Amino acid sequence: MTKKTPAGKPAAGRKTAGDKPESRTALVRRARRINRELAEIYPYAHPELDFENPFQLVVATVLSAQTTDLRVNQTTPALFAKYPTPEDLAAADPEEVEEILRPTGFFRAKTRSVIGLSKALVEQFDGEVPGRLEDLVKLPGVGRKTAFVVLGNAFGRPGITVDTHFQRLVRRWRWTEETEPDKIEAAVGALFPKSEWTMLSHHVIFHGRRMCHARKPACGVCPIAPLCPAYGEGETDPEKARKLLKYEKGGFPGQRLNPPQSYLDAGGRPAPPLGAG
Ligand code: SF4
């Protein structure tokens, strides 16, 4: 039986007995509608790492592996106060950097990465973060995901960030059957104009972090339920679903200590500094 959404409509994209598979045109239309809806739910969507320049963003993105953006944001103020430039970090004593990075986990490997990355910036790029994908991915600890975050958010070049949330949500929405990040990136990229890629990534990741959680999505309060083939995978009771919401949607602080003004204007609150709660 076709699942019903809160609006009483059959959930989109779900194939049931008698249903026709979704055409390519219908898929493109539905995917773009989901993105438009998400833009209304999260008009303030933004990268959730605090940064003031491309160097800070590339370092913060490397540090964000296996931890939350919140934990990175609570750690980087001390790091950048002590080592504001690639030259400073390239010449740093690894033990002192390890001490600062300890709260982010895997701090020895991350220390090696950020010092190695700073050395490469100094030696190969005059201490500047390069604005080209092929250069960025040559830096130690920088893969395609990190490179696209940097290109999209520090250089204004469109990029799709295929992180764990992005992978889970596009699968739930049946945007692609692919499972490898590079193939997901290509398949989803083909559904949208290039100019929308960066904001699309923010919208999807915001939704994954706030509402469409891995274990229990808050389907009962999800505004895109009528467009979602996975409606019902999570909590459908609106009252219970509301309690699952996170960050500003649940009335809690966000991940950034210095969020953009648009986030504060929408009622979002800054994250507390390290040790403050
Ligand atoms: S919360 Fe539920 S309805 Fe909303 S996108 Fe996720 S799975 Fe679909």
From TrEMBL:
Molecular function terms, GO-annotated: endonuclease activity
Function description: DNA repair enzyme that has both DNA N-glycosylase activity and AP-lyase activity. The DNA N-glycosylase activity releases various damaged pyrimidines from DNA by cleaving the N-glycosidic bond, leaving an AP (apurinic/apyrimidinic) site. The AP-lyase activity cleaves the phosphodiester bond 3' to the AP site by a beta-elimination, leaving a 3'-terminal unsaturated sugar and a product with a terminal 5'-phosphate.
InterPro entries: DNA_glycosylase, Endonuclease-III-like_CS2, Endonuclease3_FeS-loop_motif, Endouclease-III_FeS-bd_BS, HhH-GPD_domain, HhH_base_excis_C, HhH_motif, Nth
Domain HhH-GPD intervals: 63-210
Catalysed reaction, written as an equation: 2'-deoxyribonucleotide-(2'-deoxyribose 5'-phosphate)-2'-deoxyribonucleotide-DNA = a 3'-end 2'-deoxyribonucleotide-(2,3-dehydro-2,3-deoxyribose 5'-phosphate)-DNA + a 5'-end 5'-phospho-2'-deoxyribonucleoside-DNA + H(+)
Pfam family, one: EndIII_4Fe-2S
NCBIfam families reported in the protein's UniProt record: nth (TIGR01083)
Protein name: Endonuclease III
Cofactor(s) annotated in UniProt: [4Fe-4S] cluster
Residues given in the record as [4Fe-4S] cluster binding sites: C212, C219, C222, C228
Family to which this protein belongs: Belongs to the Nth/MutY family.
Annotated EC: 4.2.99.18
